[in-house]
Amino acid sequence: MGTHAIETGAGLSARLGASAGQHLRWLVSGFVLAFLVPFVLADLLEVPRDLYYALYIVGVAAFFGLWVRATGQSFGEMLRRRWVLALVIGLAVAGLLTLIVLRTEDATARPGGLELIGAVMWRGVAYGLADGLLLSAFPILAVFAMFAGTKTRERLLGTVAIGLAALAASLAMTAAYHLGYRDFRSEKLRKPVAGDVVWSIPTLVTLNPIGAPIAHAGLHTSAVLHSYETDTYLPPHE
After folding, report:
1. How do residues 162-182 score in pLDDT, each as one tens digit?
2. In the chain, how many domains are there?
3. Taking the CA of residue 80 as centre, how many other CA atoms within 13 Å lie in the half-sphere pointing to its CB?
4. Please, are residues 116 and 110 in contact by the beta-carbon 8 Å criterion?
5. Residue 231 within a domain
6. Closest by alpha carbon to 36, among 134, 136, 159, 152?
7. Does residue 233 form part of some domain?
8. Residue 177: which residues within 8 A CB-CB, separation 6 or more?
9. Fewest beta carbons within 10 Å, which of 34, 93, 196, 238?
């Protein structure tokens, strides 16, 4: 689980005095944000997809930045935690998710030229990074921060238990977000929830926020290139 990184983060949060209650309130706020953004903007207002992505990306970046500042986290320290390992695992998981897209989704027509490049950078990379940050990186880091400086984090079994709780929080965040879309209030919800177990691995192992977003960007980029008209990835679909 990245013992050195965990200890470093624990010492930092303990020095800055962020309480478990603060992180819990931010985590609950994240669940609310994750549901309301797609529910209001996509489901109720039916904002055009690319404009929706812009609003979503800005909202996620602002929320994560406010959490970092309000709880006294060091974003620079987060990025330095085992960053090489986070990058390697993130890219490996992105490759795995690409294979999953290729094997489970039908190929569809797609635009070409500059339009395709723009779609890859916007719908694939930018939206994918924001998704990975909100659905996985934030809940995982918030749960670990709740236990900063505690004896639980000093024990191997305690760290494993916290990791499982962090993964559960990420699964819940992914479920809350997709329930905001009307077409995911069905059996389709199982797909992103199952996928969350995979794309959460890089950040869960390293506690570096870049891992899960890289993996998630790989998922969305492959969807743009292979299944542009997908009804599973790249919501909203209506």
Report:
1. 999 999 999 999 999 999 999
2. 1
3. 8
4. yes
5. no
6. 134
7. no
8. 34, 35, 37, 38, 134, 135
9. 238
- Model-level pTM? 0.86
Q: Is residue 238 a part of any domain in this protein?
A: no
Identify the DSSP state of 2: -
pLDDT of residue 8 exceeding 70, the answer is no
CA 74 to chain centre: 19
Query: For residue 32, with 0-12 CB atoms within 10 Å meaning exposed, 13-18 middle and 19 or more buried, which class applies?
Result: exposed
Name the region of 82 (left: φ>0; alpha: ψ -120 to 50; beta: rest).
left
From the centroid of its chain, how far is CA 97? 14
Q: Where are the alpha helices (DSSP H) in 71-210?
A: 75-80, 83-104, 113-119, 127-132, 138-146, 156-179, 190-199, 201-206
Query: Of the candidates 149, 136, 164, which has an alpha carbon nearest to the alpha carbon of residue 20?
Result: 149
Q: How many CB atoms lie within 10 A of CB 190?
A: 12
Question: How far apart, in whole angstroms, are the C-alpha atoms of residue 196 and residue 126?
Answer: 18
Cα torsion at 201, 202, 207, 209 (round to 10°)? Answer: -120
The rounded distance, in Å, linking the Cα atoms of 35 and 134 is: 11
Q: Is residue 145 within 8 Å of 152, Cβ to Cβ?
A: no
Q: For the segment 51-68, what is each residue's pLDDT rounded down to a tens digit?
A: 999 999 999 999 999 999
- pLDDT per residue as tens digits for the range 87-142: 999 999 999 999 999 998 888 888 889 999 999 999 999 999 999 999 999 999 99
Q: CA gyration radius for the chain?
A: 17
Inside any domain, residue 235: no
Closest CA to 142 of 91, 204, 58, 95: 204
Amino acid symbol at 234:
L
Phi-psi region of 149 (alpha: psi -120 to 50; beta: other; left: phi over 0): left
